[in-house]
Structures
1.
Amino acid sequence: MNRIYVAIFSLLISVSAASAQEWTFGLGASDFGDQGQDSVALDVEYRHTPFVERRVLSVAWGANLGLTGEGDVFIGGGIWSRWQWNSGWFIDNSIMPGLYEEGTAGNDLGSAFEIRSLLGVGYQFDNGHAISAALSHKSNASLADDNPGMNVYSIRYHFKF
């Protein structure tokens, strides 16, 4: 668990020095399928200023911290994209590899290395803030012998800076 705390601390230090594009806070539920203990899930995501902006598409680097009520922790970083239309509606997706540590033995996902993918749909208000519904999935992509995976269903609020 110490490596997770070091990773969280490193993320917070590096993010505070950067000029943020967006913070996203999500609240939802974890789903481990037939195994594991489902519980409340909290998700915090940082999205940096996009390095690609074309018509309706933006692409940027991001970082994610996911926690569950059972004590499961995920921290990762990777790439995110948003398809944003003038109507205010958007589609988010991201792929963020990272470290996972289960809080209870039943929530073991097969390895400490997991990849979080996310798909969300939302609406952006005139002030730049937004709300979205998202489905994320964590899996080790069968790089380990065991790959049960888990899903998180969440409602997210986006703060633009």
2.
Amino acid sequence: MEKPFYNPQEVQKELVVLYKYFPEVKRLLRSFGCDGLTAEDIFQESLIIYLRKKNDPDFDFQLAPIHFIKQTCKLLWYNVARKTQKQGASSLEFDLEEIPDSWMEKELQYKQLETALSKIGKQCKEILHLFYGLGWNMVEIAKKLDFRNDKVAKAQKYRCIQKAKDLVQEAQLQVESTSV
């Protein structure tokens, strides 16, 4: 049995439907450490692969199109990450004199931030992770954490950020007082 070659109008309609899933796929890729621009490229490439496979008479789809695209995106991201990891491992040689003096200050700031984030509480950690780490919007966060609505979630996120800022400032004051 031979698959028919799809006409451009059908392909365009299907692509419009599949593009609606891009934010979901982008969040998935970002959760694996992919940046937004690379996620767009990977999504485009997976659509091309999907369309080629769809027109291949020997290929039989076992998944819904969006699931096929998600799996293809994951595989493409793993390949990109593996290649960049290999390149990064070969470029580990550096001259210690090239490291700027402010490096230690930045490391200290990161340490203070980590300490502050460890003290803000489980719910605050989860809100900040969902919003900044996974890119969820406030409506999704409100549903997941059982808040009344997105405004309550937004207010809670603001309080969590303020609490983290206060803890970082407190840690900075402690460091300054011990160094004086």
3.
Amino acid sequence: MLRSKGTRMIPLLSGIRGPLPGDRLPDPRRAPDLRGSGRPRELAATRLAVPVGLHTGLGCDAVGVPARFGFKILSRLPSKGCVYADSDWWWWLVPAGSDHDVSWPLPACYAPGAEIPDRRPRLIHHPDGTSPYTPPIPLYLLVCQLTGIAPSWAGPPVGSAL
């Protein structure tokens, strides 16, 4: 595990499922090629570093939204964990598996293992307690509200016993 001043790297978690085949997710790893070739260039990936002293016992994933939604979400959440930002995206740490039976609406991007495009994100909000996590359900509901998409998650099968 790599360590630097005041941060620790989130270890890779095995068994985390990624997008299913056919899922259409935004690809924030692509950036326009500023040299004029017209084709996007690939960005390297980075794992969000959790400040020392915060407990990551539930594993870490991240939910990213375009920067235009960042302040709105941050100001409306009753409880906030670590929030990172770069010029294009804002990222919230959530417990691993926060995508289980939930469809995060576009343009949100779910990043298993908190591995995101390396646009040099910086920590812009440090939680008051010892948990780095933003509660995923309020975050999900806010993202749905701001994008105008109805929340959708799988429920238990309903049956009758006659």
4.
Amino acid sequence: MATNDAGDGSGHTISIEIDPGVDVAAVLGSIADLDVDGTRVSDVRDEARSAVSVDPGEMTAVQRRTLLRAVEAGYYADPREATLTDLAAEFDVSKSAVSQRLRSAETTLVRRVVEEMDHEGSSDSTAALDLTE
């Protein structure tokens, strides 16, 4: 199910409901292909989940592009569908450069999630990803 809601006037909200068997990484890759200014991804099946806001400005444009392409290519899939070598060839840089870009982006995301978990006062909190610009 998809909805488009102007909401508070600050932008549009699009909700996409997918079946549990759908490859979420592929859906995220498709969203990234839309080239939207900000993306908020959350799992609404569990209302107890919190949203973690990540300002895209906390990552460089190169880190964001590399992270989005890594997700799209299946770098984070299990089993992994793309390697650092594959991504390095696409970006025409070394494997260590791709690794550093991903590690920096991942560090930003993990720190924000942990900050939110700490803020909620629960070490077993789950968090959705909220990328807003």
